[in-house]
Amino acid sequence: MAGARWAVLVVPALLYFLSYFHRVAPVVVASDLMAAFAVSAAVLGTLSAIYPYCFAAMALPGGSLADILGPRKTLTLGGLSMSAGSILFGLAPGFGAAFTGRLLVGLGASVLLIAGLRLAAEWFRTDEFATVAGGAQSVGSLGALAGTTPLALLVERIGWRNAFVAIGVATAALSVTCFLLVRDRPASPRVTGSGLAFREVVAGIPNVITNPRSWTAGFTSGGIYGGFAAFVGLWGVPYFTQVYGLSRVKAANLIALAAGGLLVGAPLVGWISDRLLERRRVPLIAISAINVLAWLPRVAPTAPLAPVFLGPVCFLIGLSASVVVLVFACIREVNDPRYTGVALGFHNFPAFFFFGVTQWLTGLVLDHLWDGTLAAGVRVYSPGAYRAAFALCLALAAGAFLSACLVTETRCRNIWSAA
Questions:
Q1: Are 269 and 287 in contact (CB under 8 A)?
Q2: What is the pLDDT of residue 292?
Q3: Alpha-carbon distance values, 293 to 10, 296, 301 (Å)
Q4: CB neighbour class for 40 (10 Å; exposed up to 12, middle 13-18, buried from 19)
Q5: Are 413 and 128 in contact (CB under 8 A)?
Q6: Among candidate residues 233, 261, 274, 273, the one with its CA nearest the CA of residue 359
């Protein structure tokens, strides 16, 4: 049974790998998309932003699907939607079709992690959950890394259209495999939540939303992940190339260190919380404090951070983003176990809402402080403009720390009660 518990997560993990891959993939083919569809950078930004907004919109519906249909069917449907979207994106004759393809990818990807964690909730004990969630985030980090240099190499070899079609076909094969091999629960389940009636799940949604203990944990994740996404997914490379004069490759390597921090930190933080400390709130506060410290050097009104410290600070930003694994556990453990999918899905709303809004707001700050400098037609922002933009990330980090201090300690067990 011990081996079977981990084996049942293999295919869902691969699907989540591909969902994270799609999260960062447009960055690699940005110039190809602008040329193919004759669109501006602003329009391309809209295309890329569909993904996080799908996650925010599907937070509660996605969790509800995992409770009503069960994880296996939800994972299969999510994978098939992501597959169809990737293929349509690769074959798109115009921007409208590409937009629809990206929308299908976002909708399908938005349910995969929640359904995977819902599956883990049936197969693993409560005091193992953060470790499993940490492993999932590490798999996602690998997907993010695959969406950079490996995708670029694939695109150079077969073209961006063929690359996305091939990825879509592989996703479809994984989805079918998931339906055939994955089972929602062990033969003798401890607690069953999958298969609830639609009416029961809808009735449980207000309980999760109106639970203040859900929000304190959710705001912690949203504040930290919003800054992480803005830096790693949008402004990190321009910051290093324009402020430090680094090449694109060297700047991307520093961003890879941030992804590496998440890759290492997620399972480590989960294990420390589950096994070493048997606490949620203490490591949550500690990691939130690390996140605040990691942003301070980028905002301090002094000379830019010495190049020798760039790598370690990037690693710390990624490491502190691993807080998400504890938030999943916290939200699950303060809500009715019958609605685990809804509770896990709730986490995605603040996380991805802050993801999308922070990218937009930091862009507004940079444009507001732009002094008109151009290089090869690209806007060049001053160190002061970047400091102001990252000050917003620091403010979010500080808010996340305060929110973490208010999180309810669960001691790695479900503390919800009808009272």
A1: yes
A2: 96
A3: 36, 5, 15
A4: exposed
A5: no
A6: 233
Q: Please report the beta strands in 16-73, taking only residues with DSSP state E, as ranges in sequence order.
A: none
Helices (H), 92-245: 95-109, 112-123, 129-146, 149-158, 160-181, 198-209, 212-230, 236-243
Could you tell me which of 231, 389, 246, 388 has the C-alpha nearest to residue 313? 231
- ∠ at Cα 149 (263, 163), nearest 5°? 115
CA distance 138 to 1: 23
Whole-Å CA distances, 403 to 92, 230, 356, 398: 44, 20, 20, 9
Instruction: Tell me the pLDDT tens digit for each residue of 217-264.
Output: 999 999 998 898 888 877 887 888 889 998 877 887 888 888 888 888
Long-range contacts of 246-249 (CB under 8 A, 24+ apart): none
pLDDT band at 189; cut points 50, 70, 90: very low
Rounded-to-integer distance, Cα 216 and Cα 228, Å: 19
- Name residues whose C-beta falls within 8 Å of residue 245's C-beta, 6 or more positions apart in sequence: none
Angle of helix 248-271 versus helix 310-320 axis, rounded to 10: 40
